[in-house]
Q: What sequence folds into this?
């Protein structure tokens, strides 16, 4: 049973550096989501893809953030010129449109620390 | 706008005691409702979900939740808490047309031995 995987699990970087995270969804799932979770808060929606098309982006996703899903399989989330406020857990989730797409399966997350 | 409120930030119960975690939502139509659990440093694990039908839903690990439309609530319950239930619990609503979850701020559960 291969669930959603994310890499790396932890990332420590210095302010101003660029970072990239990867998410591999459950293989047949065509929807993929990114959420951000800061300490003491619930996850907040960032963006989602249906196959390779990015269909919605939150206002939380500043122009320093970019996400791709080039072949409709894995996805990457890049943060350019990181700031201390970017420190958070970045969660990826996937769902299957054919079953309604309502149940999302979450990965273990990537914890980003910006020094 | 849709929203989810979890009024209790922290709850402490003794092992073996019963548990109820509160969740209120704001949405015009019948939402899809979920409860997730998150252990420290981990992702989210689905406990249970409500889409339609019977308003009392059973989940994993002995949890259940009751949907009450009149109160816009979806409270999570467990009759006897185990020490391993200590974690953070999130209520979420999925709204058709937006395709995303809106989460509450979570309730951190501490279990006393």
A:
């Amino acid at each position: 049973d291969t669930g959603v995987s994310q890499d790396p699990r932890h990332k420590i970087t210095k302010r101003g550096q660029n970072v990239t995270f990867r998410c591999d969804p459950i293989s047949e799932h065509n929807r993929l989501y990114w959420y951000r979770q800061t300490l003491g808060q619930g996850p907040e929606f960032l963006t989602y893809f249906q196959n390779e098309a990015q269909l919605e982006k939150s206002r939380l996703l500043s122009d320093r953030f970019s996400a791709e899903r080039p072949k409709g399989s894995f996805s990457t989330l890049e943060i350019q010129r990181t700031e201390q406020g970017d420190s958070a857990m970045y969660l990826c989730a996937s769902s299957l449109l054919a079953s309604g797409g309502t149940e999302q399966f979450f990965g273990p997350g990537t914890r980003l620390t910006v020094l | 706008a849709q929203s989810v409120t979890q009024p209790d930030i922290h709850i402490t119960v003794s092992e073996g005691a019963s548990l109820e975690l509160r969740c209120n939502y704001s949405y015009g139509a019948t939402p899809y409702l979920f409860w997730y659990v998150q252990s420290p440093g981990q992702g989210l694990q689905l406990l249970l979900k409500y889409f339609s039908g019977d308003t009392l839903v059973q989940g994993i690990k002995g949890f259940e939740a009751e949907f009450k439309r009149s109160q816009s609530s979806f409270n999570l319950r467990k009759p006897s808490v185990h020490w391993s239930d200590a974690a953070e619990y999130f209520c979420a609503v999925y709204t058709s047309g937006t395709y995303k979850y809106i989460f509450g701020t979570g309730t951190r559960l501490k279990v006393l031995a």
